[in-house]
């Protein structure tokens, strides 16, 4: 089966802006996916196995359950590269760098002041 057609699961939790970021990327690309809701007070073996470093959601599982992508901004870029559909990041390297700059700015300066789980 082509990797484009392999099933996609997104480990998420209610109200996570980081998981929403990954969902927006999947929606923009028109990729069907299954949401798997995590209880962050009782993390699943699936989450701990696929994200042993930070143990956070979102985690994107593509194909068999051993292919896991962690970190929402990494997931956005993976989804952009792995699936057909309209590009998310600009084609021009300079424009891509500017998009990444603002994504990191939001990550480090804006989201840090919002209390999250
Ligand atoms: N830098 C991470 C942040 C993800 C994050 O903060 N996820 C929260 C939910 S909104 C989480 O899983 N928290 C569980 C924990 O801290 O143990 C990303 O962009 O994916």
TrEMBL record:
Question: What role is this protein assigned?
Answer: Is involved in the conjugation of reduced glutathione to a wide number of exogenous and endogenous hydrophobic electrophiles.
According to its UniProt entry, one GO biological process term is:
glutathione metabolic process
**What organism does the UniProt record list as the source?**
Eleusine coracana subsp. coracana
Q: Where is this protein found?
A: Cytoplasm, Cytosol
Q: Name one GO cellular component term.
A: cytosol
Looking at the record's lineage, which domain of life comes first?
A: Eukaryota
Assigned protein family: Belongs to the GST superfamily.
Q: Could you tell me what this protein is called?
A: Glutathione S-transferase
Keywords, ordered alphabetically: Cytoplasm, Transferase
UniProt-recorded Gene Ontology molecular function terms = glutathione transferase activity
Q: Which reaction(s) are listed as its catalytic activity? A: RX + glutathione = an S-substituted glutathione + a halide anion + H(+)
**InterPro entries with a match to the protein in the record:** Glutathione_S-Trfase, Glutathione_S-Trfase_N, Omega/Tau-like, Thioredoxin-like_sf
Q: What is its EC number?
A: 2.5.1.18
Offer one Pfam family short name for this entry: GST_N
PROSITE patterns under this entry?
Answer: GST_NTER
- Which residue intervals define the domain GST N-terminal in the entry? 6-87
